[in-house]
Amino acid sequence: MRLIVPLQGVVQGRGGLFVGSLIPCCLFYFLQLYLKRRRSPPPDSDSTELPRTSSRSSLFTRGNSIGRVRVSSRAVPLAKPPDSPYYIGLERVKTDPYDRVSNRDGIIQLGLAESTLCFDLLQRWMSENLMDSMMHYSDDVDGGFDISSIAMYQPFEGLLEVRVAFADFMSRIMGGNVSFDPSNMVITAGGTPALEVLAFCLADHGNAFLIPSPYYPGFDRDIKFRTGIELIPVHCRSSDNFTVTVSALEQALNLARKRGIKVSGILFSNPSNPVGNILSRETLHAILSFAQEKNIHVISDEIFAGSVYGEDKEFVSMAEVAAASGDFDKSRVHIVYGLSKDLSLPGFRAGVIYSFHEDVLSAAKKLMRFSSMPVPVQRILISLLSDTRFIEEYMAAHRRRIRDKHFLFVEGLKQLGIPCAESGGGLYCWVDMSSLLTSYSEKGELELFEKLLSVAKINATPGTACYCIEPGWFRCCFTALADEDIPVIMERIKRLAESSTS
Amino acid sequence: MRLIVPLQGVVQGRGGLFVGSLIPCCLFYFLQLYLKRRRSPPPDSDSTELPRTSSRSSLFTRGNSIGRVRVSSRAVPLAKPPDSPYYIGLERVKTDPYDRVSNRDGIIQLGLAESTLCFDLLQRWMSENLMDSMMHYSDDVDGGFDISSIAMYQPFEGLLEVRVAFADFMSRIMGGNVSFDPSNMVITAGGTPALEVLAFCLADHGNAFLIPSPYYPGFDRDIKFRTGIELIPVHCRSSDNFTVTVSALEQALNLARKRGIKVSGILFSNPSNPVGNILSRETLHAILSFAQEKNIHVISDEIFAGSVYGEDKEFVSMAEVAAASGDFDKSRVHIVYGLSKDLSLPGFRAGVIYSFHEDVLSAAKKLMRFSSMPVPVQRILISLLSDTRFIEEYMAAHRRRIRDKHFLFVEGLKQLGIPCAESGGGLYCWVDMSSLLTSYSEKGELELFEKLLSVAKINATPGTACYCIEPGWFRCCFTALADEDIPVIMERIKRLAESSTS
Fold first, then answer.
1. Which residue stretches of A135-190 are H helix?
2. Which domains does chain A have, with CATH numbers?
3. Helix (H) / strand (E) containing A492
4. Helix (H) or strand (E) holding B234
5. Measured between alpha carbons, how far is A436 from B473 in angstroms, rounded to an integer?
6. Which residues form the Aminotransferase class I/classII large domain (chains A, B) (predicted)?
């Protein structure tokens, strides 16, 4: 077939001009009209398709699918079962959870980063202080405590007292080298909404954040569910112990630009989740320099900051790096924190946005109408976080006990010939099970995940779920395990390994 | 100017065909190209505009606005001060709040729908039960309560016990004619996120909900802040006591369609906010029939269902109407409820989504990661809502005390010659202050709003903020007032009226 292009006519003289441009122009014109009609169906096509009649009962009987009302297109994927192995694993555990007394053959949970290591201390504190923390007595109230101090509306961003308590606590667990200003703080009902609200404020629909991978699988839901922001993995390798480099960031940014995607920021967790390594001051400085050069935001998720157990490991907050040098525009730095990990209180839904950007703080405060922390919880946390003697005792025990459990778990794996990445923080370790793979590929890894779940009855999160490009890595959370569970796990893995080789 | 349309040539013969179609076709073709180039700027324009240099400090010094990082375009309007008189009024009260002891000249708050009427009862219950409600003892735990029952992760949609307790409570306060199935329920951290999550699930960006006006000004933030859904007011009039009619809905729907907007549902509050009228069974039936005919959703905000005080008023839930007849596809019906109003516990952030649509429930459960109710709050509410003796006592007192306060407030206004709309529920009344307007217009109403705030020192919400088309109406919330405050308010309004006429 001969293609006639519009400008062909120009070089072919007058006759060519007509023949060369008329036909394709007309075709193009009517094609546009045709496509336009197809692309935008008449508004409310749902309802116009329905015959207008007053005898509705004949059309809409119970259970009749004709005319059944539809949910939004953005709700459709959310209504489906999860496809990430991370969530599949969590769901599977619920069907048959291990219990060392009542269900010794159940699935052992290594997929959820929660800690029960210091429940004895929390139990003691709550028994002694819970009531007083919530009951504020007032001279104006007859014969009892001031119910208005927990029942009434309070500023959605959190009471000043709770922000002061969080600021002190964060400074304390982050080594005391950084101070936090309560006026730069918005209290949220969990780290998850803190992250979503920040994302909403920093990037528009269709923009992206760079994110060093492997990364925590929950970020996909936190960021992508509602904000329309993309996450672009910046692949890190075992040879660097999965630490991000500026050249990898640069490469990912350039690739995104080529694809026409605007990158609005870098998101990362420190201590990193799932690897557990702690970013050095130099790495943080390099990330911030890169962000400054590209004029993008930095979101540092520091929710495991107080769960650092390595002997010679020092946690440094991005807030400290931003404040330490006058070279940086601090307003691009945003910290996410919460008490689900370091204080083992995920049930309390306690999170913080810490930002140096006034507009982000103003917008986040307004958005807190959707995720504000209930006042009774604020009251408990004001008391708990301000009890510095308890906090010192708790944090020392928390770190010591993670370290001990980590040692037990990693030693157990080592005896099976299974190594872990070097780590110094977090409630998990990053385990190299590549020796157990039948094929060194994503497929092989997912087969191992399935075998771990159904044969060994262990739920560990495969690297694929974390966008790791090297197959065979698994995240194993160990801080909700009793010491006596660890030999059980090792025995199960040993048997799986033996059956694979035989 | 002579317009040459492509098909003109057809009727003008061969010469006309060339002249008639060639020129506009070419123009159209190049216009398309031109517009396409203008519409999509090069990606990452922010960062490409910055000179690449390693000497960052010269470019980005502290406080230097060059290269200052920007927030998302959707955060920009949120970071600005509010422009709705509703929020302006609330902010102004904070600067100089009335206190009958310490600041008798301060601004009296009639803008916030909260109640302190039964704080004596709540105080008693909390003093006696708060501790036990949170402390679950377990045989497995040595010497104390089971901290895991409040500290650990729980299903984001709420524990089964809290959903059962909510279902029983809702059925009870809604007259016992309707039962709620806990499995159709998602517990949320407040009515506000319940509404936003529903909106997200039912409509897409650019779609709209019809909403009878005047409506509660907070809906604008609840729905529009993040979902991108429009609210189309369906104007109701004082002649119908501001009750919506099907013909008004039909008209608004047709108008929306003409504008090319897809209407996904109808949102309304019952008892209505700000008017306080209670929708009859017939009206609810008509709304649901209309929604069925148009195949759209119905969102019924029933957060004031237990605050009905009219002698002969009966509250009917949309859930009851949907369930009562086999004619309706129930899956289009969604109820929002919460404890901020009926139980006077806004500080607890307790809300519910009740839906008959499986996909909506599945999606909402996943979205609860952003707005789940903290477990300690769930524990308190399980005890509180299950204490049926207390709930009966509380609800009877709550209704009686609203009725008495309403009588005092409305009588006070009546003596000043200021009438109110007929109402039977809610923590407010809808006051016709048109006699105080200097001009019968929106401008006149806003002038009166400002005079009330700065001269009379009263914050009442003007109808404009509620999209009321008749000027002069104000919403006045009276349930946080002491009896002795009411003469103070009346005196202030009287003086304002006198100074206006003199």
1. 148-151, 160-173
2. 1-31 (no CATH), 85-119+395-501 (3.90.1150.10), 144-390 (3.40.640.10)
3. helix A485-501
4. strand B230-235
5. 74
6. 109-493
Dihedral of alpha carbons A231, A157, A393, A340, sign: negative
Written as six digits, the tokens of A118 are 């210091």
Sign of CA dihedral B4, B6, B10, B14: positive
DSSP symbols for B354-374: EES-HHHHHHHHHHGGGTPPP
Kindly indicate whether the ipTM for this predicted assembly is greater than 0.90, answering yes or no. no
Query: Tokens standing for B458?
Result: 């009263």
Query: What is the identity of the amino acid at B239?
Result: S
Indicate left, alpha or beta for B426 from its phi (over 0: left) and psi (-120 to 50: alpha): left
Helices (H), B116-245: 119-134, 148-151, 160-173, 191-202, 218-219, 225-227
Contact of B482 with B111, CB cutoff 8 Å? no
CB B299 within 8 A of CB B202: yes
B29 touches chain A (CB under 8 A): yes
Which tens digits make up the pLDDT trace of B64-87? 334 689 999 999 999 999 999 999
Tokens encoding B134? 């949170």
pLDDT tens profile B298-355: 999 999 999 999 778 889 999 999 988 777 889 999 999 999 999 999 999 999 999 9
- Which positions in chain A touch B145 (Cβ < 8 Å)? 123, 126-127
User: Among B220, B222, B301, B485, which one carries the catalytic annotation?
Assistant: B301
List all residues 6 or more positions away from B427 whose beta carbon is below 8 Å from its beta carbon. B113, B114, B115, B304, B307, B341, B402, B477, B478, B479
d(CA A383, CA A389) in angstroms, rounded, equals 12
φ/ψ of B322, rounded to 5, equals -65, -40
Q: Peptide bond preceding B193: is omega within 30 degrees of 0, i.e. cis?
A: no
DSSP 8-state symbol, A381: H
* Cβ atoms of residues B153 and A192 within 8 Å: no
Put simply, whether B114 touches A (Cβ < 8 Å) is: yes
Among this protein's residues, is A341 annotated catalytic? Answer: yes
* Nearest one of A418, A484, A421 to A452, comparing CA atoms: A418
CA–CA dist A385, A295 (Å, integer): 36
Question: Do the strands B108-109 and B458-459 form a parallel or antiparallel pair, or are they unpaired?
Answer: parallel
* Closest to B151 (Cα-Cα) out of A147, A480, A407, A418: A480
Please identify among residues 184-213 of chain A the ones whose CB lies closer than 8 Å to any CB of chain B: 189-190, 192-193, 196, 200-205, 207
Query: In the Cβ-directed half-sphere of A269, how many Cα atoms lie within 13 Å?
Result: 27
- Type of residue numbered A212: P
**Dist CA B185 CA A59 (whole Å):** 28
- Chain B interface, best mutation among A14, A54, A69, A126, by max B CB count within 10 A: A69
Q: Can you say whether the dihedral through the CA atoms of B349, B353, B359, B362 is positive or negative?
A: positive
What is the four-CA torsion angle of A198, A199, A200, A203, rounded to 10 degrees?
120
Q: Is there a contact between B144 and A123 if contact means CB atoms under 8 Å apart?
A: yes
Asked if B304 and B342 count as a contact pair (C-beta separation under 8 A), the reply is yes
Helices and strands, number each (H, E), in chain A? 20, 12
User: Which site among A295, A296, A367 would you substitute to test the B interface, given the most B Cβ atoms closer than 10 Å to its Cβ?
Assistant: A295
**Chain A (63-82) residues lying within 8 Å, Cβ to Cβ, of chain B:** 64, 67-69, 71-76, 78-80
In tens, the pLDDT along B182-229 reads: 999 999 999 999 999 999 999 999 999 999 999 999 999 999 999 999
Contact between B318 and B270 under an 8 Å Cβ cutoff? The reply is yes
The amino acid at B143 = G
Give SS3 for B74.
Answer: coil
Distance (Å, rounded) from C-alpha A67 to C-alpha A52?
12
What is the percentage of chain A residues whose pLDDT exceeds 90?
A: 79
**Would you say residue A27 has pLDDT above 90?**
no
- Give me the torsion for CA of A310, A314, A319, A325, rounded to 10°: -150
